[in-house]
User: Fold these one by one.
Assistant:
Number 1:
Amino acid sequence: MITNLCFHGIGTIVHERESGESRYWVTEDCFLRILDEVRESPQVRLSFDDGNRSDVSIAFPALRERELRASFFALAGRLDDPASLSSSDLRDLRSAGMAIGSHGWTHVPWRGLGEEEARRELVDARTALAEASGGEIDDVALPLGRYDRQLLGRLARVGYRTVYTSDRLPARSSAWIQARYSVTANDTVESIRSVITHRPGVRDVRNLLASRVKRIR
Ligand SMILES: [Zn+2]
């Protein structure tokens, strides 16, 4: 089993786009300590959602320094806005061996989308990000972690190679659905260490059941 860690923003958030967003921002110091903790752990994979500028201003150089790779899930609708990644950032990340994935267009939950919205979020966003980053987009991360059976069916039909959730569980390395742990402002290097070393507890059983329900509901 592997552990997928997901970051959203590093450093100080300038303004929240969504209420409660700052809960998912971690200090630079905490971020660097986590990277140092996981740098020798091949069973830990790293991803970054939302395409915030801290992905390139802080995370990218820190990853390169430690010869780590990560996946960056950007939003097509935020490309080139001042607080977000630009097309040339995506190209720089890609040419340094980072993976670029889609997080959709507008950062809305994908459950129960109408046909038109689904096309924009699942198909058009992918096309726009592929163009912007100069390469294929194979992977997708679900905005706000929400999903159900209908959405998984749509993602399968559109042909995504891997679907990243936020179900706070370990994952099988080759599974189509990859659960991830979102790192929050309350995390410390110690709390992340216990996630990685993984002693299954009550919370895991609860998360596993919740994840099963989402797949079949
Ligand atoms: Zn997000």
Number 2:
Amino acid sequence: MAETNTPVPAVALRAGSGTVEIPQLGYGVWQVPDAEAAEAVTNALDAGYRSVDTAAIYGNEAGVGQALADTDLARDEIFVTTKVWNDDQGTDATRAALDTSLGKLGLDAVDLYLIHWPVPAKDAYVDTWKTLLALREEGKTRAAGVCNFEVEHLQRLQEETGELPALNQIELHPYLQQRELREFHQANDIRTEAWSPLGQGGEVLQDPVITGIADRLGVTPAQVVLRWHLQIGNVVIPKSVTPERIKSNFDVFGFELTDEDLKAIEGLDRGERLGPDPKTFNG
Ligand SMILES: NC(=O)c1ccc[n+]([C@@H]2O[C@H](COP(=O)([O-])OP(=O)(O)OC[C@H]3O[C@@H](n4cnc5c(N)ncnc54)[C@H](OP(=O)(O)O)[C@@H]3O)[C@@H](O)[C@H]2O)c1
């Protein structure tokens, strides 16, 4: 990635014999309609984001690609992630799916390609993973990872292919802190990326512990939650289509949470999912 004047730390991802750097704070576009994605991503790039997280199933890769085509930023200044959907797992289907995604995005390669869900009933994630590694060697992706993998799925990849994902993108917010998975990631050089990092803008942002810290620091509850993610080492990809929120969610490098704040937020864990359980989600 080119040197740019950004406050966002770069996080190293394993990628074959080298490493690739992902910005620790990026921009997610789940539920942004294709027709609105170009404007949303353009607003995010203008606010300073240099990482965009989309997926084939979001149906907005073309809109994201439009923003990438419109910007004056160089391709290597923007980190682009997309994902192979469950129906396209398996060797040939995954190859075809990446080609389709690249076509919509208007790119020769993505920076990170992820398996979207393990889909245990389908039992194709090991072959899909081998395909992602081959596509990386071919230069169609720079790094390979997964989403929603539990320890048992990761261990199976290790046993059957000898290589673990560089990153696992999982549901993670103050009400679902994923301690066991984060420890496994840390022990195995896997980066943790948090999806629904703001708890989808719901109850988490009204929690008295969060609002209390926000009031004391003179920041928003979302900024407190994002700062918590950054300080515990997560890569984080908040979504917003609201220009003011896009900006304020990026403005999280001018203050710090204390150890006491971090402890108080740690105490909020309820093991409460907003999305499906990866062990049983076979959709
Ligand atoms: N791999 C997976 O399976 C998976 C699953 C889910 C999500 N993801 C990725 O993770 C990204 C983020 O997750 P998410 O979209 O589920 O949820 P999120 O980022 O936790 O929350 C987004 C919601 O919060 C609102 N919001 C954003 N900033 C706010 C602020 N400062 N104050 C109050 N509300 C705010 C947004 O509203 P407005 O947009 O109206 O401003 C939106 O409704 C997704 O976009 C996607 O890229 C991946």
